[in-house]
Amino acid sequence: MRKNKKLRLKKFYFHPITVFIVLSFLVILLSFVLSKFEMQATYNTINKNTKELEATIVAVENLLSFDGMKFIISNASKNFMSFAPLGMLLISLIGLCVAEATGFIEAFSRKYIRKLSNLQLTFIVIFVATISSLINEIGYAILIPLVAMIYSANGRNPLTGIVTAFCGVAFGYGVSVFVGSTEVALMNYTSIAASIIDSNTHISLTCNLIFIIVTSIIISIIGTIIVEKIISPRLGKYKVRDDLSKTEELRIIDLEEEEQHKIEREKNQKRGLKWALITAIVVIIIFIYMLIPNLPNSGLLLDMKEATYLNQVFGENSYFQDGFTYMMSLLFLFVGLAYGIGARTITNDRQLIEKTGEYFSKIGTILVLIFVMSQFIAIFKKTNIGVIITAWFANLIEYLGFSGIPLILLTLILIAVSNLFLTTSGAKWAIFSPVVVPMFMQSNISAQFAQLVARVGDSMTNGITPLLACFVIYLGYLNIYNFDKNKPITIRRSIKLVLPYFAIISASWILLVIGWYILGIPIGPGVYPTI
Predict the structure, then answer these.
(1) 60-111, pLDDT tens digit by residue?
(2) Predicted confidence band of residue 265 (pLDDT cuts 50, 70, 90)
(3) Is the terminal CB of the chain with fewer CB neighbours within 10 Å at N or C?
């Protein structure tokens, strides 16, 4: 008797590289269609000299044209080489790979991190990732590779570490324990927009300081619960395939000799960690000295053209911000070298370079992914679609004319949605601020609180848009540590992994912002939600 067999269609998984190539072609085609329909938007910008509003018209640019094709072809190399994640990742990996090759990361993890519970480790990762936005996107380039290495060394699923670090940076972007790059990107637009209503309004770098310090802790606690209770169980445990277990080779071990080797190894590791600690302290002291002004040969990392110290450190031309990735790479490089020499895990430069090269060989696919994603983002940006959608949302806020809590909620949600298409905080706030800030002030809500709403809106959707430049690091490392190479982690699955985090954290952000407004708690030194 013949058994009926059900035919099952084999699932086919498109690699993210293929998907980004297809998306690029679709965006080009979409630009052609939308340009034929004359899709455009008008939004207001503020003249910095006259402080008056000026109308700006932006239309979809057709890339399926002679000039469009010329742009795509002639700028391919420039788009790739100027793509921020490329430089940040390569520079950070120099130090991280040296630290990994010498055995420092594994030794440090086994000595100190294994003592932490899963909850403690997750909280530390999320908290550090959250406050890393103090200095641009450094958290993506440093923490995602580092946390993957640490989780792997401790027998935890590295995919869990990658998702945890990414969620901490992306969904906590804009909050920290001190002022940083976000304030620099937003405050000038806030100040100019506020001058439309009140020319005496002062927007300081610390105007959101209390809010960001408190919420960075709250969001880290909530994020820890989400990861441990929802995300980590879905990803499963980390399984290391032991090829030696498949052999039946009989080995005779001299227990006394084995014990001697163990003692010697632990002694070397202890010495290596001691040398690494001393080196880390020395390097950090040197870095701190570079941030102190008016001392002999100090202030190397400061922009001395700025008047205030905060602007010298976090200003647009700050050497500290521009060089922080390289500084962190140097820290790991020197610490790794100190450990390797002290623990005798490296004997010569050739051995170190070969070991480091082995770790670098894993990122070949990421480089290709970065290339295609850099083209996709450049193409989408050139079409102006993101700017037009953002302008529509800004005009919608003005048209509806809400006030109070409805205005706060509407602004928060529309900024969050527009962030899916225009991920640059400054560019987005340049469009929203001339509308939002005056409306908030006319509703007796402070301009500083309007800026707070903008930064929260950015945080809510950062982790679910492929147009986020550093999304490529997250996606690339998921596939590096993916156990099933025949089933690549797709863009859809990578976003699906963070959806629980996105949903709960977004709800938490909304409650925090509205609750803060209702209670009237200070958002910064001497600054309140209301005027």
Answers:
(1) 999 999 999 999 999 999 999 999 899 999 999 999 999 999 999 999 998 8
(2) confident
(3) N
Compute the distance between CA of residue 109 and CA of residue 292 in angstroms, rounded to an integer. Answer: 32
| Type of residue at 402 | F
Query: Residue 221 in contact with residue 123, Cβ under 8 Å?
Result: yes
229 residue type, one letter = K
Range of lowest pLDDT (320-329, 355-364, 441-450): 355-364
Q: Which residues contact 9 (CB under 8 A, 6 or more apart)?
A: none
Contact partners, residue 429, CB within 8 Å, separation at least 6: 185, 186, 189, 190, 451, 454
* Cα–Cα distance for residue pair 27/443, rounded to 1 Å: 40
Total residues belonging to the chain: 531
- The residues, ordered by sequence, that sit 6+ positions from 178 with a Cβ below 8 Å of its Cβ are 134, 209, 213
The CA-to-CA distance between both ends of the chain, in Å, stands at: 84
* Alpha carbon distances (Å) from 510 to 406, 479, 517, 525: 12, 33, 11, 22
Three-state secondary structure of 116-170: CCHHHHHHHHHHHHHHHHHHCCHHHHHHHHHHHHHHHHCCCCHHHHHHHHHHHHH
**171, 505 Cβ separation under 8 angstroms:** yes
- Kindly report the backbone phi and psi dihedral angles of residue 427, in degrees, each rounded to the nearest multiple of 5, phi listed first: -65, -40
Distance CA 41, CA 395 (A): 9
Residues ≥6 apart with Cβ < 8 Å to 450: 190, 411, 433, 436, 437, 440, 441
pTM: 0.89
- pLDDT given at position 297: 80
CA dist., res. 357 & res. 352, Å (int): 8
Distance CA 334, CA 351 (A): 16
CB within 8 Å of 224: residues ≥ 6 apart: 119, 122, 123, 126
DSSP-assigned beta bridge partners for residue 445? 530
Residue pointed to by tokens 């560019």: 427
Spatial separation of the C-alpha atoms in residues 45 and 56, rounded to whole Å: 7
In 10 A of CB 516, how many CB atoms?
Answer: 21
Split at pLDDT 50, 70, 90, the class of 233 is very high
Radius of gyration of the chain (CA): 26
CB atoms within 10 A of CB 98: 26
Identify the three-state secondary structure at position 529: coil
Tokens of 47: 């003249």
